[in-house]
Design brief:
Radius of gyration: 17 Å
CATH class: Alpha Beta
Number of helices: 6
Shape: globular
Number of domains: 1
CATH topology: Maf protein
Distance between the termini: 12 Å
Structural class: alpha/beta
Length: 199
């Protein structure tokens, strides 16, 4: 059985990505959790050495919970393209380089896809909630769609402007954050977490 997280409990959001921090904090707000970012606490970013999203989320959550002495929630997510055999996948952030230039990363995806008619793509999100004693709960979800070019929209972050969810007319980059939060990979994983740990 999942371990419950009571309302009012302080929780570390174990990310240094401002976009993820904002999305996760917004999702937590409705559940009365007192979220504080890893950046504010000055926590280091652990190396993401796992081969999958769940493993990397667990590494980050456990590291933050161990150092802070508080429960910690970490996300590992990425953009996967069928024509690139699932790449960039767990390396999505690395494709943006040290300056986190996602316009460069999206251009790289586009260049590698040239000449390939396969445009299926998906986002995966893994959320891991870790306690200082090492206990963890992990939740994984995905949303399917297609990669589009050129990128569209100024909202969102990362690869959002080049991802069109299945059945949609707007890319994640064109969607209002509230609209995106209803269907995104992170929101779907968060719904699993809520059902297990908040209700």
């Amino acid at each position: 059985m999942a371990r419950r997280l009571p309302a009012g409990r302080k929780l570390v959001v174990a990310t240094h990505n401002p976009g993820k921090q904002r999305e996760i904090t917004d999702l937590l707000r409705a559940h009365g959790v007192n979220a504080v970012s890893a950046t504010v606490l000055g926590l280091p970013e652990p190396d993401e050495t796992a081969s999958d999203f769940a493993g990397n989320a667990r590494l980050k959550a456990v590291a933050a919970a161990t150092v802070s002495g508080l429960p910690a929630l970490a996300d590992d997510s990425g953009f996967c393209v069928a024509a690139l055999v699932g790449a960039p996948g767990v390396h999505s952030a690395r494709w943006a380089g040290p300056n986190k230039d996602f316009s460069r990363a999206m251009a790289r995806v586009h260049e590698l896809m040239l000449g390939n008619a396969e445009c299926r793509a998906w986002f995966v999100a893994a959320l891991c909630l870790a306690w200082p004693d090492g206990h963890t709960e992990t939740f994984v979800s995905r949303v399917d769609g297609e990669a589009v070019w050129p990128p569209r929209g100024e909202c969102g972050f990362g690869y959002d402007p080049m991802f069109l969810p299945r059945g949609g007319r707007l890319t994640f980059g064109e969607m209002d954050p509230t609209e995106k939060s209803g269907i995104s990979h992170r929101a779907l994983a968060f719904a699993q977490l809520v059902a297990a740990c908040f209700k």
